[in-house]
Amino acid sequence: MASARDMLHDEQGRVDVKSLGRAALGDWLESLGIGRHRTNDLVQSLWHDGARTFEEMRRFTPELRRKMAAAGFVSWLEPALVLQSQDGTRKILWKLRDGRTIESVVIPDGERTTLCVSSQVGCAMACTFCLTGDLGLVRHLLPSEIANQALQVALLLRGDRRLTNVVFMGMGEPLHNLDHLCTALEHYQDDFGLNLSHRRITVSTVGLVPQLVEFARRSPVNLAISLNASSEAERLKIMPITKKYGVDQLLDACRSIALPSGKRIAFEYVLFEGDNDAPEDAERLIELLRGIPAKVNLIPYNENPDRDIHRPDQDRVKAFQNHLIQRGLACTVRTTRGRDISAACGQLGKAWEQAQDRGWLAAARAAVHGEAADTTGPTEPS
Ligand code: SAH
Q1: High-pLDDT (> 90) share of the chain, %
Q2: Distance between CA 192 and CA 171 in Å, rounded?
Q3: Whose CA is nearest to atom 12 of ligand 1?
Q4: Residue 103, ligand 1, Cβ within 6 A
């Protein structure tokens, strides 16, 4: 696996300043003789103004801009392709500095605009039903690569909609990349940065137990656990991580977490036809979650040609939901969005055969490169 750490510097040895958290940015400014008291200005230039280069940072004098530009660089994701679904969902393919690609999904829903972000290239968790798992883990994303997905989408939306929510439900297992995740979250939540409340950020995990406990200590954002089965034996069949951390161990860890007041842990439960969608499963699920401030989010399985797994019909989904609700467990069903462009849960990482959204692609490139938006010449990723 290529190390993400190698990528912190460019060929000239300059540091990727967007991968530095607040404290490290302060140290960096101090080391340049600029002083850590300018940290807010730098955070604001990078994560609010969206400066493309140090030269653009009007909050600093030309001399200080030159000093910073000699020691650091401002990283951007290259938008390679944008697909638009009939339901308004957009999927963006980003090219990283090493040529690898990741995806983000923008989901408008009334007043809300949710961005689904990736945390790794590929994923090591190998859940049998998930297409991202087929890639294996290629590498962790840098903090800048995690946070730039949100910054660049916020810039694209500016003047039209506001980015209101971020969910870590794209490619990768976020808690497998814990430190980079936490650094990126600093920028998401910073008043001078993207300024998103912890109430509007959700980290979804297979449940790496030690990392989960540590993360809950470090961060107040919402937690979602992908449970997907109502027993240890069933979960073992589809989520290999269960061998390492059993269901009881995972749920005991959830019980031990001191949640911020009013918060509950969301348990994602993908419904597979004939596998985990029976009333007995609902009963077992209720038992499992006893004693946890929990809510359940049912995700009817998104089918794809590579798997002989099916989505239960709507009545069955509704019956499962009603069963939980009648027993006092809060339960929602996730609406499927972006299915026609393979942007729905578990469908990221697929081939790119669909129509492109030229307007957004051009705007996304203009935001990175500064040229006027030209909607005539999209290119395919190579
Ligand atoms: N690794 C993290 C986040 C990525 S997956 C995690 O596992 O939570 C986000 C959600 O999509 C998970 O709950 C996962 O179980 C679900 N998912 C994966 N493939 C799916 C598919 N084909 N249909 C529906 N949901 C799927």
Answers
A1: 82
A2: 28
A3: 226
A4: no
